Amino acid sequence: MIPFALSSSRVHLDVPTRADAAAIAEACQDPDIARWTTIPTPYTTRDATTFVDALVGPGWASDREYAWAIRRAGSTWLEGVIGYRTAHRDLGFWLAPSARGAGLMHDAVRLVVDWAFEQGAPDVYWECYAGNTASAGVARAAGFSYTGTGEALIPGRDGGPTPAWKGLRRADGSPASDLAWPAETFPAAGRV
Known about the structure:
About 30% of the residues lie in helices and about 25% in strands. The protein has 5 helices and 8 strands. The protein is globular and about 45 Å long.
């Protein structure tokens, strides 16, 4: 597929390039990103360049995975990455610590999920490693139904099975499950 951009009033999604390597490398120093993803550790600018060259471009060209840089509207600085993998119609994302709490991921998820539904996807799948309450909170707020805990599609950094929280959002809006989200995925009482 030819890469394209998606935008809202708060966020602009476009294809990450080599010019984003410094921003990617800086964000990937965050212990939470390292903990909840399979990025190399330690993460270097060379790793970011390899991500752009070996994964982003080929992913779009093969229609295997569409990865977008998350940028604030009007800015060129990469704040995070969101990807949609076509084989399982699944969503993955991360956001730099400095960008959290501004609604950027909420808008990015909405844009990508709406786009997938416009392309005819009957549903979009999401998962995170069990315990990643921030990712689960984004998915819950984006209308995903919690469908349970099971082995992650993407194994842990050591290649072994990793438990994951799983969710599904259907294009027709019907709930995919009546299971309750784990209690820890809800903000603490009094938190905004």
